[in-house]
């Protein structure tokens, strides 16, 4: 059964983080990892002021562990790069690839946050042992199976689309006071219209409230 691990670690704890250290004005997001033969080629987005990215790009190319750092695309204030490093037996990202783990999300600067899916608990344990054996300090935030996560949605009779929209709205501060994000911004992030995300959030919110407050008898009446 697949298991998800969410963890954080300091940039200096792993090769990628060490090579990609940059100013706090920038944000780095690992888009995906592409295995090519024995090599692992991460693709990553770098967002920030142009002058900072230019300096960052030069510093990365000059890093002793970096073999190649190539810009592939540019969109607004973000640039997409392909990254290749020299072989490193203690490379955390390469170990994840070797375990056939899927990096669902990875962002960072001086500290990185990862969300990774492993095929089973045995591979998760192997990854944990890899980190322990090499004194790589990771801070585990959460571990759960896909079934556990899916059941949270089923408990409130939410569709996958409703749950996705509701979780995004909650995380981005849509329900906060003052509001941290507008409905149009949430719609843009999901690639749907403002009306479409409204049609997901409103009924989803009602389902959760009904289940939480009105189900299982008259406890709150």
UniProtKB/TrEMBL annotation:
Domain of life: Archaea
One Pfam family recorded for the sequence: BAT
Assigned keywords, A-Z: Transcription, Transcription regulation
HTH bat-type domain location: 158-209
Coiled coil ranges: none
Classification via PANTHER family: DIMETHYL SULFOXIDE REDUCTASE TRANSCRIPTIONAL ACTIVATOR (PTHR34236)
Protein name: Helix-turn-helix domain-containing protein
């Amino acid at each position: 059964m697949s298991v998800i691990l969410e963890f954080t670690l300091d940039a200096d704890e792993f090769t990628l983080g060490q090579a990609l250290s940059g100013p706090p004005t920038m944000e780095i997001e690992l888009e995906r990892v592409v295995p090519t033969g024995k090599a692992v080629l991460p693709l990553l987005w770098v967002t920030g002021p142009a002058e900072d990215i230019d300096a960052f790009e030069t510093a990365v190319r000059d890093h002793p562990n970096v073999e190649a750092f190539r810009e592939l695309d540019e969109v607004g204030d973000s640039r997409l790069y392909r990254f290749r490093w020299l072989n490193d037996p203690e490379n955390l990202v390469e170990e994840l690839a070797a375990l056939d783990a899927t990096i669902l999300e990875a962002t960072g600067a001086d500290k990185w946050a990862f969300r990774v899916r492993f095929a089973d608990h045995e591979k998760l344990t192997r990854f944990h042992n890899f980190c322990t054996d090499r004194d790589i300090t990771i801070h585990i935030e959460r571990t759960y199976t896909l079934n556990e996560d899916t059941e949270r949605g089923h408990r409130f009779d939410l569709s996958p689309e409703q749950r996705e929209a509701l979780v995004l709205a909650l995380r981005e501060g849509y329900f906060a006071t003052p509001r941290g994000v507008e409905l149009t911004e949430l719609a843009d992030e999901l690639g749907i219209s403002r009306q479409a995300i409204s049609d997901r959030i409103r009924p989803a919110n009602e389902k959760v409230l009904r289940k939480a407050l009105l189900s299982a008898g008259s406890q709150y009446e």
